[in-house]
Amino acid sequence: MSRHQKACGPSKASSNVSLPTNNIPDLFQKQSISEIDTSDSITEDDVKDAVLDFFIAGNIPFNQADSPHFQKLISMIRVKGKRLIINRKNVRGRLTLRASQAKQDLINELAANSSRCSLALDGWTSRLNNSYMGMTLVAHKSIF
Question: Are 88 and 71 in contact (CB under 8 A)?
Answer without folding.
Answer: no
